[in-house]
Amino acid sequence: TGMPAGVFSLLVGRGHDVGLALVGDPRITAVGFTGSRAGGLALIAAGRSRPVPVPVHAEMSAVNPVIMLDGALAEPEPAAASYVASLTAGAGQFCTNPGLLLLPAGPAGDAFLSAAAQALKAAEGQVMLTPDIARAYTEGVRRWENVPGVREVARGAAGTGPYAPAPVVLACDAAVYTAHQELTGEVFGAAGLVVRWSDTGELLGLLAGLEGQLTATLHAADADRATALELLPVLEERAGRVLWGGWPTGVEVCHAMVHGGPWPATSSPGTTSVGTLAVERWLRPVCYQSFPDDLLPPELRDANPLRVPRQTGSGRTRGA
């Protein structure tokens, strides 16, 4: 490729040992991480405990709530099919996987759930990244299932290969969800929890109790705009990316993208791991004050010989 040696390296290991060794190496001055909350917390602690602490930009856990309002349920079959497709994509191992669906109680919500059950029964489990991840998925689903008041909506088929557990959707009402802390954490994989809410007040209570998230998605129609306006201030406090319609598993690399969010979705809520702003995680600002022009880096000289975009007292410029 012509790139310098070391631009890309891959070290393979089990557990946290390899990651901890890398974070502890004095040649490492900043760290990016995507993985479990336990792994992220271990690396953050290691980065802080060094003689010279280093930043660890950790992307950890999220359930990425999807809120369905009544107006979005007029055509339950296509909406449910899209939900199941997003939930099961890549064995459910996208960090933006829609693990929590907040669905209104009543006939419209029932029809959506019935359609989702039919779509999920046709889905087959896919091989997960590691045996440990597959085991954690199975244990997480069992943890949800053991909560009184949680019922199975549908289960797909286990895959034919090893470590390919069946996708599953479970459901409960809002009171059960808020009473059981074990329902609020992420189950990494193709497991969805549907929580039924009865009115806007109950929905707002559910959202207020959520941890920080990578995404929050609102499905609604024009008739729901008043409710949407009521929900948006809560959603923007909880998530780095707020979607109107669609599903959160598609992440575009672009100037506007924010792939981040409040703790514990990430340890660096002021930045993003995807998009133009992501590079700023690896930069440190330096100010040159009162230097002669010929001693400045070319990017800062008055003539701007490299014609880089610059912000000056008169606005943004590129030079001659």
Features:
320 residues; alpha/beta; Aldehyde Dehydrogenase, Chain A, domain 2; 3 domains; seven-stranded mixed β-sheet; two-stranded parallel ribbon; globular; Ald_DH_N; Aldehyde dehydrogenase family protein; oxidoreductase activity, acting on the aldehyde or oxo group of donors, NAD or NADP as acceptor
Name the CATH class of the largest domain: Alpha Beta
CATH topology of the largest domain: Aldehyde Dehydrogenase, Chain A, domain 2
> Any idea what the CATH architecture of the largest domain is?
3-Layer(aba) Sandwich
Which residues sit in consecutive blocks of at least 5 with pLDDT less than 50?
none
Helical content class: 25-40%
Number of domains: 3
User: How many E strands?
Assistant: 11
In what range is the share of β-strand residues?
15-25%
Order of helices and strands: HEHEEHEHHEEHEHEHEEE
Indicate the radius of gyration in whole angstroms.
23 Å
How would a textbook summarize the main sheet? 7 strands, mixed
Give the distance, in angstroms, between the N- and C-terminal Cα atoms.
33 Å
Shape: globular
Protein name: Aldehyde dehydrogenase family protein
Domain Aldehyde dehydrogenase: 2-229
InterPro entries: Ald_DH/histidinol_DH, Ald_DH_C, Ald_DH_N, Aldehyde_DH_dom, Aldehyde_DH_Superfamily
GO molecular function, one term: oxidoreductase activity, acting on the aldehyde or oxo group of donors, NAD or NADP as acceptor
